[in-house]
Amino acid sequence: MKEIISWVLRHVPRKYLQLVSHFGARALSILYLGKGVKCSVCGSEFRKFLPYGRSGRDNALCPHCLSLERHRLMYLYLQRKTNFFKDNLKLLHVAPEYCFIDRFERMKNLDYITADIESPLAKVKMDIHQIPFPDNTFDVTFCNHVMEHVDDDIKAMSELYRVLKPGGWAIIQSPQDLSKATTYEDASITDPKEREKHFWQDDHLRLFGRDYGKRLEKGGFKVTEDRFVMDQLTPQEVKLFALPANEIIYFCQK
After folding, report:
1. Structural domain tally of the chain?
2. 212 within domain boundaries
3. Residue 97: inside a domain, yes or no?
4. Which residues are registered as beta bridge partners of 113?
5. H or E stretch at 18
6. Containing domain of residue 121, as a range?
7. Residue 79, burial from CB neighbour count under 10 angstroms (0-12, 13-18, 19+)
8. Per-residue confidence in pLDDT tens, the chain, 254 aa
9. Looking at 160-248, which runs of residues are DSSP E strands?
10. Same domain, yes or no: 101 and 22
């Protein structure tokens, strides 16, 4: 199973996967019935989650809603540490994840807009370097696992900052190598296999280090590095929801 999923992720364009992958995952869910793990997003329980990723991470993908470890962590964070489910908010969701879209659209407190440069799931087609909304439009912005792909991450961050209202907040997560003090970029590496070796995927333009929060600050944000999963969740919760054990939540404010 791990090898099949890895092959699909490497060879099928992402925009097609976004349209059909939920059908395949739900068909496989019968093989994973049980009570070992629980999805914090959809509430479904399984013996374990599906493997996922080009390297085939075990216990990663919820077969029902397609949440990954980072999505289940973010959802818990939104529930426990933000006003997301309480206040009336205008939300811009860049590169919207399948597991969130229907849930957020059903929330009566949200004025919800999805956007992306190519995703068939998004309602607004846009380049994040030039967001087509006025200054101070949104209360909240989400943009996860995008900054490693864009030409100019600081410019993209500053655009997200620009369209936030004063007092607004954002969650902008990216893959991060915490063993590196600074972000690693090298445009001279062009071979796809070498790029995957250096940047974890051949379509990543950089690998963020421990300076990720500082880069977000260059975009204008006040950044809180919240070690929510390490400091505020129990080991039992981390295991039950199959969360990423070392991921830092970057809570960005304007």
Report:
1. 2
2. yes
3. yes
4. 92
5. helix 14-28
6. 83-232+244-253
7. exposed
8. 655 655 455 545 566 555 566 655 666 666 778 899 999 999 999 999 999 877 779 999 999 999 999 999 999 999 999 999 999 999 999 999 999 999 999 999 999 999 999 999 999 999 999 999 999 999 999 999 999 999 999 999 999 999 999 999 999 999 999 999 999 999 999 998 999 999 988 999 999 999 999 999 999 999 999 999 999 999 999 999 999 999 999 999 99
9. 164-171, 222-226
10. no
Six-digit token string for 102: 């229907």
The Cα 171–Cα 77 span in angstroms is 10
In a domain, 237, yes or no: no
103 in the same domain as 45: no
Structure tokens at 216: 């977000």
Residue finishing a domain among 38, 67, 96: 67
Q: Report the Cα–Cα distance between both ends of the chain, in Å, rounded.
A: 44
Shared domain check, 152 and 126: yes
For residues 193, 194, 195, 197, the Cα torsion angle rounded to the nearest 10 degrees is 90
- 149: CATH: 3.40.50.150
Q: Token digits for 94?
A: 């860049």
Burial grade of 114 (CB within 10 A; 0-12, 13-18, 19 or more): buried
Classified as helix, coil or strand, 108 is coil
